C-alpha cells in the first residue's frame, strides 16, 4: 500500500468490480482437499506397511501398480494443496512486496522440486522392477 | 471479556475491553483455526520427508537404509508421531471447513463441539495407529 495515499483500501477497490479470478483457486483448494481424504488415509496405511519390511519390501510394494499410482497421486495432489496453502499463509503474514514475492516463489519452487523428485523416484522404482522381471 | 458485576454497593459495570492479543479470551475455535494452519505447515514438511523417502529408495539400498534409520531413531519417530497427529487433525479440520463452506456449523455451540472433536480425533487416531503398530504391526 502506498504510504503517501490518504485513500482507504476500500475506497480504492470500490467501483472496480470483482477481480474476475480467484474462484478457480477456491475450487482447486477444495478439490485437492477432498482428493486428499482417501490419499492421506492410504499414506498412513502405506507407512505402517513399509515400516517393518526394509528395502526389498519397499521396492516390491511399489511393483504393485495400485501402490505406484497411489504414491504418485499422493505426492502430486499433496504438493498442489500445500503450495496453495502456503501461498495463503505467506499472503496473510508477509506484507512487504519483495519479501512476499520471494517467499511465494521459493515455496512454489520447493513444492515443484520435491514433487518432481518424489514422483520420478516412485516411477523409477516401480518401472525398474517391472523391467527386471 | 466484559462482565456485568452485579455488586451490592457499587453496581459498576466493568468496562468492555477491546479485542487485543493480550486481553482476548482463548477460544477453542480460535485454537482449532491456529492448529489447522500449524498442522498444515507441519504436513508441508511431512510431504517433503515423504518425497525424500521416495528419493532415497530410488537411490538404492544404502541410501534407503540411512534414511529409514533416521526416521526410525527416537527423534525421527517423535517427528513421525507428530506428523500422524497433524495428518488426522488436519483431515478432521479440513472436513469441518468443507461443512463451513456449505454455510453450516457456525452456531457457537456446534462450532465449539466440532473444534474439540477435531483435536480429540487427531490425538486418539494417532495413538491408535501407533499402538496398533507396536502391538501387531511389526
Structure description:
- Chain A is an all-alpha fold.
- Chain A has a single domain (19-127), classed as 3 helical TM bundles of succinate and fumarate reductases, CATH 1.20.1300.10.
- In chain A, 80% of the residues lie in helices and 0% in strands.
- The longest helix of chain A is centred in the last third of the chain and has 35 residues, at 97-131.
- Chain A is elongated and about 65 Å long.
- The model of chain A has no long low-confidence stretch (mean pLDDT 92).
- The model of chain B is unreliable at 1-7 (pLDDT under 50).
- With 138 residues, chain B is an all-alpha fold.
- Chain B has helices at residues 28-59, 61-72, 74-101, 108-137.
- The longest helix of chain B is centred in the N-terminal third of the chain and has 32 residues, at 28-59.
- Chain B starts with 27 loop residues before the first helix and ends with a helix.
- The radius of gyration of chain B is 22 Å and the shape is elongated.
- The A-B interface holds A 30, 33-34, 36-37, 40-41, 43-44, 47-48, 51-52, 54-55, 58-59, 62, 71, 74-75, 78-79, 82, 85-86, 89, 110, 114-115, 117-122, 124-125 and B 37, 40-41, 43-44, 47-48, 50-52, 54-55, 57-58, 61, 64-65, 68, 72, 80, 84, 87, 91, 94-95, 97-98, 101, 129, 132-133, 137-138.
